[in-house]
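Example 219.
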Amino acid sequence: MNVLDALRARRSVRGFRSEPVPHETLRAIFAAAQCAPSWCNIQPWRVVVTSGEATQRLTRALCEAATTSPPSPDFAWPGEFPEPYNTHRRECGRALYTAMNVARTDAQGRHRAWMRNYEAFDAPHVAIVSVDRRLGPYAFLDLGCWLQSLMLAAWEQGVACCAQASLSTHPSVLRAALAIPDDEGVVFGLAIGFEDAAVPANACRTGRADVDANVRFVG
Ligand SMILES: Cc1cc2nc3c(=O)[nH]c(=O)nc-3n(C[C@H](O)[C@H](O)[C@H](O)COP(=O)(O)O)c2cc1C
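Predicted structure in complex with flavin mononucleotide:
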């Protein structure tokens, strides 16, 4: 698969088969993502990857925390999304809830759909990504380069992912379970595994604006 094919085909997967990804494959994917560029090559992504019982323990603890305590992420989430971002956000939500057959007015259904995040959509592996708190916003850019590199490398290997900001809402749980040091802030997580095509959420497809909506070519 070439890079353009992977870029066009990759999508977020939110329902996984239980079988684990072989360790050599997981390692190869994370090793490929090490090629991501970063400012002065500082390589600031810090990642813990769970398998087996460690994934079960983590998702159980996250579900418990999400039902008993409010979100308290290390880095503030965006508040309001002005236009045109809010329209994109709503279209994304509509695509997902339509695939899951959850009506806009079904508050319980939407809550259950949100809670699937904390189950990591039944993925056999979870990756938690943190960054040294002393680094500024450009380190987040580096993490973004790493994230897309990882997701494309995974897709090429037949392994599916969903990047999840939702996994950052209860960092104290992650610190306790995964020995993440206090001087690192948790930024996001990923669910990783083999896609279960029978899960309705995996019928979700998102669109993109035309390139001219985002890019001006000058000269
Ligand atoms: C940094 C980041 C955080 C995300 N957090 C979540 C999340 O918490 N839950 C979720 O279901 N999807 C999450 N997503 C997936 C996006 O919703 C998805 O990438 C977007 O809708 C585009 O769809 P696609 O990935 O299928 O192309 C996240 C994506 C990124 C890049």
